[in-house]
């Protein structure tokens, strides 16, 4: 038998010439059917080469399907965000084109014979092949795929005559004409990464199905419209049963709208599904109908009659081991984590997800914007830094792409339109606009007239139903909410359009249709590393302006890939870790969960600001606002603690209708803090009973300061050798603390530095890191000015200077003691000439002590990290942690782990301890390494404890913002160079 592996495609460069594939069946619904199927997943053979024509295929190896070959030992992953990793040379790709020639034998099940004899067809179904493939059976051509994340089916009946074994061969190329329209911000990896099956399609079977489960919110009555189609696309009569509703009805070929009477509606809050069986004598399919109505009412987006706020996130399919290969467990796990953290919406950025994800969104209740597999961002970026002619050649205006792109749109909408969780379609991401995108939008409307269409790069919302932008500032968002766009914002929109190669429509700019539509942030709050900051302020806008419908945080997960570095450390790799010449570094690690799906503090922050119940606690009461669209608070209960969360008592919760708010009195208490939390009464889906939905504290600063006083200065300083002694503290001749009680101190003093966070690093537009480092803020030098004993204290003044600069700070430390503890009162006065636009990273005080003080207990805001513009969900309490767990293992090391409002802390280990008291509540970070280590290491796995414990107190910190891809910190979160004073005590003990 001739095998296709022997075929070289020298005369047919199919990978460049077939943007619409070949031989595929029209897209149709993915159905849960009782018709037989044969899963072809498992171990296949692969021969790998560098020529798409197959002329240099190497020896045969084994490979897992589904899977990506770069993660199975063949070639390497490459990460670019915007730019193409190959020359932009449409429709061509380089001669060197990693190619995997897959093959396996298959046998047609014997019990399919009778059906085949009756005329049943056999379909070969691929659910995901990146980027294009040519398929053969027994050496005879089957067809060509197009659309990496789209289901493609071929009728292979006539090639599978006899039981077999038959040889199935799939030649997959990494680069194809499709690459130009699949330029999503993720790893470039290839292969058959979703399941492959053979489907037996009985004569008279339900080939395709279009349903719509509608609900009239006024009457609570539902309808189910059903249209079924046979293999030729012809109308098909079916029987429909909904046992729970007592429905059993014949639907004629032309379809019908079935009145189902009163039903429980489907929403993200109560995702009620009804089992539906649709059958013909030849086949039955099972559906789960969720009755709901999606409507656009002027500038309000409604579901079941109510305005919806999208508390959403953008989700790529990623896994540290198998990449975007389907992984069934991850689908359920992600949806569960989202529900546990108060998210109610997902955008499937930037392609249709694995089927199971949509199933689980239906089940647990998540509103989905389902997006097509289309991005062409690289036309708007060029390594020369110029346009490079890309905008003019964009696929959105290139007729060569029309057929393929419209077909993609048709295919992805048809596949998933029976899912109640999908409430909007997006044709794609960052691919500009033009006649082709308009045709795509049109096609969505033809295939599914029931759902709105969104597409961000239609910046003025001239063609779409919902207006969206990515990463607008709070101020711009407010202009949208107020419906008054400033000239500056209009100018920005104009230049954004020009950048796409689109001539701005001045009438539309003057009177934007966008402002008559609902608005949402299709991407915002870029969660790269430590951040994003100011989510609270975004949500405040949503609560203020009805046409602002919330949005989708960028993004769900860090796409780090598990690997080892040159020193053998296990790391989560990012761009550049796999030998790529061209890459975008750690921009691929910007999620709410770390690569292994550990929630990062940003997810906990989002949980708080996305909470369905607003909770503000003051001294004597808690203000509750029901932010659900549909349900009251009967499923929740409340508890209050007045003893730093050591005990809780029940708090009566008022029955609050959606939108309502109430002030709930709190029990009288003498302590400095009170905390309220709301918990679920019963399990719902993945959310267990007793789960905390939202919690908040009120802290009375004066009471705290009174309860945690600093010891009085009773033991005067004395000279000791060339230095000084202040109670338990020994200082050298430069006034530096070198010993405290039983503890050696290696470095101690005022600290103005923190390791930059991703939002401050080089790739941001406003890179603070380089400005900070240029003046040597990371290596400030100290000069002693004076040491004087004053009353019962020692006063040390010094000048912190920066190399090559006249900038710096005057520091005054007043040290005193009661014999047991050392009290420090610190004043920091930055130079009067400090530039106004250059914030300080931190004003604080750091010490390091040799040895592992690896257990920490503290009283303050916890349990997770907090910066001026993050830390939602932290509450005041007594928290305990290991040193390890205080660190946040961001993929790329950076400042992390600060706990806010800490009044006392006990750091201990190896029989020694250090106690801190900070009556005003300051920031505290305790680490096994220095800020410098965090600054210089490229990967969390490469960080090395240096045998010391580093304790950093922060009296003031600069906010983290979102500038890696979004706004800088809001003015109220900027740490301006200004005088800061703070005080604390240190007590060291040895057992
Ligand atoms: C957006 C894009 C996303 C992602 C993000 C930055 O422009 O749509 O795919 O690249 O920026 O992380």
From TrEMBL:
Residues 725-987 form the Beta galactosidase small chain/ domain. It holds the Pfam family LacZ_4. The keyword Metal-binding does not apply. Transmembrane segments: none annotated. PROSITE patterns: GLYCOSYL_HYDROL_F2_1 (PS00719). One of its GO terms (molecular function) is hydrolase activity. Keywords: Glycosidase, Hydrolase. It catalyses: Hydrolysis of terminal non-reducing beta-D-galactose residues in beta-D-galactosides. SMART domains: Bgal_small_N. Its EC number is 3.2.1.23. Belongs to the glycosyl hydrolase 2 family. This is beta-galactosidase. It comes from Brachybacterium hainanense. The lineage of its organism: Bacteria, Bacillati, Actinomycetota, Actinomycetes, Micrococcales.
């Amino acid at each position: 038998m001739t095998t296709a592996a022997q075929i070289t495609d020298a005369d047919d460069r199919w990978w460049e010439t077939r943007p619409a594939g070949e031989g595929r069946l029209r897209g149709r619904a993915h159905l849960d059917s009782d018709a037989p199927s044969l899963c072809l997943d498992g171990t296949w053979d692969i021969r790998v080469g560098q020529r798409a024509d197959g002329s240099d295929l190497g020896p045969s190896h084994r490979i897992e399907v589904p899977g990506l070959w770069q993660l199975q030992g063949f070639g390497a992953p490459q990460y670019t965000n915007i730019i193409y990793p190959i020359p932009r040379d449409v429709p061509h790709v380089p001669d060197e084109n990693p190619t995997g020639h897959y093959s396996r034998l298959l046998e047609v099940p014997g019990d399919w014979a009778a059906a085949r004899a009756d005329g049943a067809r056999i379909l070969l179904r691929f659910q995901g092949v990146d980027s294009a493939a040519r398929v053969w059976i027994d050496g005879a051509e089957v067809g060509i795929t197009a659309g990496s994340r789209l289901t493609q089916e071929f009728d292979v009946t006539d090639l599978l005559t006899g039981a077999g074994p038959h040889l199935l061969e799939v030649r997959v190329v990494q680069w194809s004409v499709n690459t130009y329209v699949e330029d999503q911000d993720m790893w470039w990896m290839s292969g058959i990464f979703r399941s492959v099956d053979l489907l037996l399609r009985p004569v008279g079977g339900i080939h395709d199905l279009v349903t719509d489960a509608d609900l009239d919110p006024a009457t609570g009555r539902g309808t189910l419209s059903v249209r079924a189609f046979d293999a030729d696309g012809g109308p098909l009569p079916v029987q429909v049963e909904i046992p729970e509703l007592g429905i059993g009805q014949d639907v004629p070929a032309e379809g019908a709208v079935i009145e189902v009477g009163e039903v429980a509606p489907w929403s993200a809050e109560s995702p009620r599904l009804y089992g539906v069986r649709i059958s013909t004598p030849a086949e039955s399919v099972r559906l789960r109908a969720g009755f709901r109505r999606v409507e656009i009412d002027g500038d309000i987006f409604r579901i079941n009659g109510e305005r919806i706020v999208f508390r959403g996130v953008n989700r790529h399919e990623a896994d540290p081991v198998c990449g975007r290969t389907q992984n069934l467990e991850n689908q359920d796990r992600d949806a569960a984590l989202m529900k546990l953290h108060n998210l109610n919406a997902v955008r499937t950025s930037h392609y249709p997800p694995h089927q199971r994800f949509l199933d689980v969104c239906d089940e647990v209740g998540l509103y989905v914007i389902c997006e097509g597999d289309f991005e062409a961002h690289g036309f708007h970026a060029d390594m020369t830094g110029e346009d490079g002619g890309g905008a003019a050649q964009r696929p959105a205006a290139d007729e060569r792409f029309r057929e393929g792109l419209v077909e993609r749109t048709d295919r992805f909408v048809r596949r998933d339109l029976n899912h109640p969780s999908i409430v909007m379609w997006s044709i794609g991401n960052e691919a500009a606009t033009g006649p082709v995108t308009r045709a795509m939008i049109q096609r969505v409307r033809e295939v599914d007239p029931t759902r709105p269409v969104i597409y961000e790069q239609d910046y003025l919302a001239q063609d779409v139903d919902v207006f969206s932008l990515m990463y607008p500032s709070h101020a711009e968002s407010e202009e949208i909410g107020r419906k008054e766009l400033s000239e500056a914002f209009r100018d920005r929109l104009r230049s954004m359009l020009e950048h796409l190669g689109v001539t701005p429509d001045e009438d539309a700019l003057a009177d934007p249709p966008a402002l008559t539509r609902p608005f949402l942030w299709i991407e915002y709050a870029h969660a790269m590393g430590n951040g994003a900051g100011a989510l609270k302020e975004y949500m405040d806008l949503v609560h203020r302006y009805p046409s602002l419908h919330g949005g989708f945080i960028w993004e769900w997960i860090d796409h780090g890939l598990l690997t080892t570095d040159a020193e053998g450390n296990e790391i989560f790799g990012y761009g550049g870790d796999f030998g790529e010449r061209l890459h975008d570094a750690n921009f691929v690690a910007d999620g709410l969960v770390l690569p292994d799906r550990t929630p990062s503090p940003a997810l906990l922050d989002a949980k708080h600001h996305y909470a369905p119940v607003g909770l503000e606690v003051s001294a004597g009461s808690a203000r509750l606002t029901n932010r659900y669209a549909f349900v009251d608070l009967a499923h929740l209960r409340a508890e209050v603690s007045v003893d730093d969360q050591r005990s809780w008592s029940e708090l009566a919760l008022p029955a609050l209708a959606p939108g309502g708010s109430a002030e709930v009195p709190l029990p009288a208490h003498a302590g400095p803090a009170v905390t309220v939390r709301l918990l679920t009464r019963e399990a719902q889906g993945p959310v267990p009973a007793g789960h905390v939905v939202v919690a908040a504290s009120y802290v009375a600063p004066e009471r705290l300061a009174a309860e945690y006083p600093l010891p009085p200065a009773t033991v005067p300083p004395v000279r000791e050798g060339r230095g000084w002694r202040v109670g338990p503290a020994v200082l050298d001749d430069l006034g530096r603390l070198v010993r405290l009680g039983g503890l050696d101190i290696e470095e101690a003093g005022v600290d103005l530095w923190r390791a930059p966070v991703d939002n401050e690093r080089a790739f941001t537009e406003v890179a603070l890191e380089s400005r900070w480092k240029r003046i040597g803020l990371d290596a400030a030098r100290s000069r002693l000015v004076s040491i004087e004993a004053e009353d019962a204290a020692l006063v040390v003044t010094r000048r912190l200077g920066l190399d090559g600069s006249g900038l710096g700070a005057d520091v005054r430390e007043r040290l005193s003691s009661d014999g047991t503890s050392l009290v420090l009162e610190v004043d920091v006065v930055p130079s009067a000439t400090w530039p106004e636009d250059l914030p300080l990273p931190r004003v604080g005080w750091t010490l390091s002590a040799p040895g592992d003080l690896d257990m920490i207990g503290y009283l303050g805001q916890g349990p997770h990290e907090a910066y001026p513009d993050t830390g939602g969900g932290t509450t005041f309490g007594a928290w305990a942690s290991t040193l390890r767990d205080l660190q946040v293992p961001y993929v790329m090391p950076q400042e992390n782990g600060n706990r806010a409002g800490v009044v006392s802390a006990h750091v201990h280990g190896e029989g020694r301890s250090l106690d801190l008291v900070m009556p005003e509540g300051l920031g505290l970070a305790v680490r096994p390494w220095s800020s410098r280590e965090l600054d210089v290491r490229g990967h969390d796995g490469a960080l090395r404890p240096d045998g010391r414990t580093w304790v950093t107190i922060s009296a003031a910190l600069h906010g983290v913002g979102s500038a890696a891809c979004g706004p800088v910190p809001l003015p109220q979160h900027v740490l301006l160079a200004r005088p800061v004073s703070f005080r604390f005590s240190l007590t060291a003990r040895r057992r």
